[in-house]
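ok trying this again, last paste got cut off
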Amino acid sequence: MNQPVALITGCSSGIGQALAHTFLDEGYKVWATARNPDTLAPLVARGAIAVTLEVNDEAQLLACTTRLQAEAGRLDVLINNAGYGAMGPVLDADRDTLLRQFDTNVFAPLQLVRLTADLLRASEGLVINIGSVSGITTTPFSGVYGASKAALHSLSDALRLELAPFGINVLTVKPGAIASDFGNNASAAITMADNSWFKPWEQAVRARAKASQKASSTSATDFARELMKYVKNPLRPEEVLIGTDSRKMVSLKRWLPTSILDARLRKRFGLNRPDKG
């Protein structure tokens, strides 16, 4: 039997690297991608194939998938993990911020599915899109990021239905708080204008950027191992929640009246009028 192949984006650290290690443990030939291939050395040492890939670079996407077709000739699992979190008030998000957010979290995953569809069809493979509970329960100062993940969830739903006749399965993963470099990266990507109305809440914005990085956050390794259980289960659900607070965040949106949830979130982020104390 031919060795199964997994293509995983965003493997430089965190969830992506943990997933790559877990798939190697399970006997997959892992094609691990990252913008900086030097970060993939631990995976290469275990037999992974390193691919330089900026997911927003069309030429690199095409080069990656063309090489995959030529050298592997198959694809069993595609994991769209590479992501970007632009935090800050929606009012301060300019067009470039919006485009970069959606390019990385929405358009790139869809393009990668397009480019690998023939291989996935031949193997009756699995597409795994890494979304977020932020795409379900929107919080202040993560609106642009949450909107991109909500869009990815919606596209995953459509792909799951449309690709079913061709034997391709789609699994949408909605992580909660996972220990990774996401908080540091999100902090570096905060969008706030110099004359922003939200300067009084700057600390709250920075706290939101690091909200997933706390002592109780699920480790990336535990996340990857739990996800692998679903991959191996032929009766897997269509979407899964993994990680600290993932079920809690979804429950808040599902069961609380919007007015009560809004009041809780305004209180949590101190969104009282600055002139009212």
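PB: full thing came through this time. The domain at 5-246 is CATH 3.40.50.720 (Rossmann fold).
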